[in-house]
Amino acid sequence: MNEMDMDLMFYVSLCVTLIIVVGAGIYATRMVKSAEDYSVGGHRASGAIVTGALIGTLIGGAATIGTAQLAFCVGISAWWFTLGLGVGLVVLALFYAAPLRKQKMVTIAQFLVGHFGEKAGLITSISSSIGIFFSIVASFLASVHLLSTVFQLTIIPSILLTALIILGAVWGGGINGAGLVGILKTVLVYGTLSVGGYGAYVMLGGIDGIGALFPVMPWLRMDGVGTWKAVGDLVALVVGILTTQTYIQAIYSARTTAVAVSSCLTAAAIVIPIGLPAVCIGMFMRVYHPDILPVNALPLYFMEYLPSWLGGAAIMGLLLSSIGSSSGLALGVGTMLSRDLLSRFVGRLSSQRLLAMNRLCVLAVTAVASVVTYIYYDALVLTLNLYSMAFRASAIIVPMTLAVFCARRLTSSEAVIVMLGGLVPALGSAVLGVGVSPIMFGIAGSGILAFGAMMRKQR
Length: 459
Description:
Blueprint: H1 3-29, H2 35-40, H3 47-58, H4 62-74, H5 80-101, H6 108-116, H7 118-151, H8 155-170, H9 175-204, H10 206-213, H11 216-219, H12 227-242, H13 245-253, H14 257-288, H15 297-305, H16 308-346, H17 351-375, H18 381-394, H19 397-405, H20 412-432, H21 438-458
């Protein structure tokens, strides 16, 4: 791709991206009349909007750029990320969606407050917000690296441009904006990534060629990173889906339970296979361009091996995927901050004031993520996402599951102890770097404490 093509691709892709995302956000603003409309679409969102909101957040920088980055380093086991996301959606659809929707809530914290009291809700809001924030930064990083590499922008302009497009996607339209952007980017990302992945697979020589180019371990085994780490990562992804505000928010926004369930299953069918072409491209770039930065594997492939017009569309899809994911996650954190934390200090607000506070929280989250992205510019995208899943779920998954399937089996004080018993071991294992996903320690800690509390009641 020559310099003139690059200049043309830059302006065309950037302008089209801005027009699509901001246009969808402005259009979605027309659907927002209250705080309920903004956060959960007034509990009447269609299947397309719910599916779009789920996919728009899930298929982000980690599922595309991050998966290719990890495949460049370790091979096919990078597929665990999108595979785990899909499994999590299936579990959410089959076992959690209907019980969660029995109460028309907006946040996970509100659901747990109804079962275990205010302290449990406070811990939920704080741990979820911090955990999800890691994912926002991860998607921010993917977008910033993309803008820096492809368009030769420096770090600060890349960060500012990413922040502006994020706000354009969800500032006005909330969950509806996230859903519309999700639908648009899914079509674009799926098409270009499928074409690019198939091309990489063919150029590698298919199954036989890949087998000849790479040793079985670690490149061609799903447990190439280690069995326990692979299992831990899968568990982290599944429980991360179950306890992430953005995905629960999408479930609450559906107009019926059937719509919520079918939307989750549709999103799973789309998310699971999308990691495979990214893996092929990452492994291809490892063979033919081993000296590049791993995070640049996917965008550089699109630039070098696709026609300029398709490469430009592919880069635009990557940008949309990274920014769309950040937008949905920022909306989730902003909703929790406004409804579960700040509302404690300002008291009951009218719907319009709550809507304004929600939007201000989304703005604040995006601003802080911009600063953190600048500080941790060289962090590994998928690593941040996996730690994010672990931190947001460690305190929540056990009491949430008990609330769904064994209502009120813990007292309020016991629930708080169980939640802290999950969070502390997870944080400790992450700090010590024990080599196993922190979520394994978190679930073990909270599970043991919950089991002990329930056994005492049966004596």
